[in-house]
Amino acid sequence: MLEIKTYGRLGIADICDKVLAGERLSVEDGERLFACPDVLAIGSLAHEMRTRLHGTSAYYVMNQHINYSNICVNGCRFCAFGREKDDPKAFQLSIERILEKVRQRLGDPITEIHIVGGCHPDLPFSYYETILREVRRLRPDASIKAFTAVEIAHFARSEGITTRDVLIRLKSAGLDMLPGGGAEVFSQRVRDLLCPRKLSGRGWLEVAGQAHRLGIKTNATMLYGHIETERERLEHLDALRTLQDETGGFVCFIPLPFQPANTRIEGAVSTTGVEDLRTMAVSRLMLDNFPHIKAYWVMLTVKLAQVALYFGADDFDGTVIEEKIGHMAGAESEQALTRGELERIIREGGFTPVERNCFFERADKAV
Ligand code: V47
Questions:
Q1: Does ligand 1 have an atom closer than 6 angstroms to the CB of 328?
Q2: What are the chain's domains?
Q3: How far is CA 165 from CA 155, 216, 302, in A?
Q4: pLDDT at 321
């Protein structure tokens, strides 16, 4: 950490005291952190908290992403991945094609398969159940992290059943965990402007809470760097930690910097490195009840994600293998990293690489 007097000079000595005492920061504290000109001071506070929780460990996972379809009824303005059904770039994978992708990687020691798509207008619910059953059969040792809260609500609407029943059926088909996507920022103002057809912030939180109560862990994301205010980011973080107080079901938080290419937000530009690091650090400091914060290298770039390990992040995500959502929006990162590359990046950053599964159980201890 920097010297205490530095925080005094910056007018945030009281926030520094709260962090050191393990006390919760308010949304107003968060606003002051965003306003503080010294990003290193904020970063070192977040690093203090991250080190208290995880020491020098930095986690990674051997995983595989599979997108079953990009056809989506929501048409969110920030998304370059989703397509209408009749678009020449629309795709929809058959179950056999999905299994083929899993089979191609059977030789790799993958412990997590991450499956998401758009909100498809007419795929039957049995399609999703079959994906889970068959992937589970092919790779019984890998955890399946699939379908965001937005997809869960969409399946419920299409099938005419409750989101709770959707979750129960998917769990019995092999679902282990929900990924954190679809949260964007919960602010209704932002959602009305960017994704009016999408599940509301309140709806997203309800589905996440239901999943937690059924014993299904989830992650949570925040898409930032478009039209949202800092206050809206902080209110998003506050809503997440309130739910986490109730359920304890969130595993990892992932701040996602908006990638503007091929999207429909006029005049949007990429976030800068300092903004990304500051948002990472503020997220770590606000989310005092979240065990893990992910530096998602796909959206941050590998180099900035490595630096983010000093700004509150403790997880580097993983091998990924084939990424579409960020890359269709202009992400400049690689498509995949190997175990060797992940370990070298983490080690050269000064951390100890620890392989984990989707629940953050260490690979050497996982059953
Ligand atoms: O929900 C969409 C975001 C998310 C853009 O849970 C965009 O472990 C940036 O949620 N620029 C999907 N982001 C990715 C995601 C995720 C990724 C890795 C790990 C986990 C996890 C979750 O990507 C979407 C949306 O919020 N997104 N468009 C864009 N233009």
A1: no
A2: 57-356 (3.20.20.70)
A3: 10, 13, 39
A4: 86
